[in-house]
Q: What sequence folds into this?
């Protein structure tokens, strides 16, 4: 039986997890959202490993994987910016800049 569809299914699962993660953030259930986010991150590594290890790479998978990553990151950024604390949406490069704006009252 051909199992090359598994990495694509995992990528589709990751895309399907975006809405529940964002809804949990909006409702203030940050621990559950973080757990699902970690699961999505684990699934990203798993589908990449499976596709590479067993040569299950497909054109669809080559499109789905980066789309899933970008949708998740963009959705999280927009949702966290709208949640009231812009510094939650900052990545490592921007933490110092966010702290500067928060402390200076320019935010």
A:
């Amino acid at each position: 039986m051909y199992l090359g569809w598994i990495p694509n299914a995992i990528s589709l699962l990751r895309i399907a997890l975006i809405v529940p993660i964002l809804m949990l953030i909006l409702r203030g259930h940050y621990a559950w959202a973080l757990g699902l986010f970690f699961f999505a991150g684990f699934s990203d590594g798993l589908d990449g490993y499976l596709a590479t290890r067993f040569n299950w790479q497909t054109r669809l998978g080559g499109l789905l994987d980066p789309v899933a990553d970008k949708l998740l990151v963009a959705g999280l950024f927009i949702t966290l910016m709208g949640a009231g604390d812009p510094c939650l949406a900052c990545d490592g490069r921007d933490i110092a800049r966010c702290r500067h704006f928060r402390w200076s009252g320019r935010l």
Q: What stands out?
A: Residues 100-104 have pLDDT under 50 and may be disordered. The helical segments are 6-26, 30-53, 59-82, 95-104. The chain has one domain: 6-104. The first helix runs from residue 6 to 26.
